[in-house]
Write a structure and sequence with these properties.
- It is a single chain.
- It contains 17 helices and seven strands.
- The protein is α/β, with parallel strands linked by helices.
- The protein has three domains: about 90 residues, Orthogonal Bundle (Fumarate Reductase Iron-sulfur Protein, Chain B, domain 2), CATH 1.10.1060; about 150 residues, Rossmann fold, CATH 3.40.50; about 120 residues, 3-Layer(aba) Sandwich (Rossmann fold), CATH 3.40.50.
- The strands form two sheets. Strands 5-4-6-7 form a four-stranded parallel β-sheet, sandwiched between helices.
- β2, α12 and β3 form a beta-alpha-beta unit.
- The radius of gyration is 20 Å and the shape is globular.
- It starts with a helix and ends with a helix.
């Protein structure tokens, strides 16, 4: 396999003890006996990797970090999988994209430098934004998701953006919003499409620099991780802070006067917000500040939280569906009436899992964190 040894050294793949703890905790392995992180790593590092390059299951890995968290020698398994996917992609290998590849095509199209978009049509007259501001609201792919999922899933992704700006306005912040913002490239990065990702990174970094913003707020954990870790830190950009909306709310919790909401809720920790960015307590602090909201934790929560079942709009098959159903059952089992998500994709995947179910539908309401906070704001 034509994979640089240096990349293996960076992700510590050569340190693997083949103990199998990664496979034992892997959500995909729980429902697909042929999927084994241990075997896939051993194939790439010790046995040439040719079989792995041609293996469809290569694209099923959730890159959720549960395995690395359990690894006794700190192998960065998710990055290892990304490295292998990069080689596989260059050799013409690919997984099974969901939704007819449409969402992946959108990401690729936004890497075109001459592309002109109108991404601010969702900003209504009740929201206050500025052309220039120290705070930039990063919308992410919510406008694309709105067009793609709103009708079929009976859920408005763009409402997350609207309510984010509502929260910022409540804190007397009038953010800037980029009218030609592009996909952050998170999915392309983890699928090994490095060249396209770097193009998006360059275009978005220029737009961020031009905006003059000192703080970027987003309601998407994948955007938060990508902007903070893959853009700013890797490029050495200083003076710009990235915050998920839950962090901003928690930091300013004393500034909020909430209406009471009599609700029993449970919370889905997004992989990128939790294990990747170590943000666990902030959303909980914010939710529990709302009078009447009772948080019921799932058995698998915080560092042990199970992924929503699929990632990067790729290989969303039977195993993914089983993970989602199990997770919804776990949420329902807490006695909560509402599952709170803090990632647009988590909400879409769970909602999709329940869509069309007649006899086996898991009856639990779903609401995004941002929508919950906005609904409780007084005034």
């Amino acid at each position: 396999m034509e994979l640089a040894t240096e990349e293996f050294k960076k992700n510590k793949a050569f340190l693997c003890l083949e103990c199998g703890k990664c496979t034992a905790v892997c959500p995909i392995s729980a429902y697909d006996a042929e999927f084994s992180p241990r075997k896939m790593l051993a194939d790439g590092v010790f046995y040439g990797g040719d079989n792995l390059i041609n293996e469809n299951r290569l694209w099923s890995c959730l890159t959720c970090l549960l395995c690395s968290q359990r690894c006794p020698v700190d192998v960065q398994y998710s990055e290892y999988m990304r490295n292998v996917r990069e080689v596989a992609f260059k050799q013409g290998q690919w997984g099974e994209p969901s939704h007819g590849s449409a969402l992946l095509y959108i990401m690729e199209m936004t890497a075109e430098p001459k592309l002109k978009q109108n991404r601010t049509g969702w900003i209504n007259g009740n929201l206050k934004t500025k052309a220039k501001s120290d705070v930039l609201f990063w919308t992410g792919c919510l406008p694309y998701y709105q067009d793609f999922f709103a009708k079929d899933l009976d859920f408005s992704p763009i409402s997350i953006a609207v309510d984010s700006v509502k929260i910022l306005n409540y804190l007397n912040i009038e953010p800037a919003v980029l009218d030609n913002e592009r996909c952050c490239g998170h999915d392309l990065y983890w699928l090994g499409q490095t060249e396209k990702f770097e193009k998006l990174k360059e275009l978005n970094l220029k737009a961020i620099e031009k905006s003059g913003a000192k703080t970027i707020v987003t309601a998407c954990p994948e955007c938060a991780y990508t902007l903070k870790k893959l853009y700013l830190e890797k490029s050495g950009v200083k003076g710009v802070e990235i915050k998920h909306i839950s962090e901003l709310v928690a930091e300013n919790i004393d500034s909020f006067e909430f209406n009471g909401l009599e609700m029993k809720v449970t919370f889905q920790d997004p992989c990128r917000l939790g294990r990747f960015l170590d943000v666990y307590e902030q959303p909980r602090k914010a939710m529990q500040a709302i009078p009447g909201v009772e948080l019921k934790e799932m058995p698998h929560s915080k560092r042990g939280a199970v992924c929503c079942g699929t990632t990067n709009w790729m290989n969303c098959g039977a195993s993914s569906a089983k993970i989602q159903r199990a997770r919804l059952s776990e949420a329902k089992g807490t006695g909560a009436e509402t599952l709170i998500t803090a990632c647009p994709k988590c909400r879409i995947h769970f909602q999709c899992s329940n869509c069309g179910q007649k006899t086996d539908k898991i009856d639990i309401e779903m609401k995004d964190f941002t929508n919950l906070i906005a609904s409780a704001i007084s005034g």
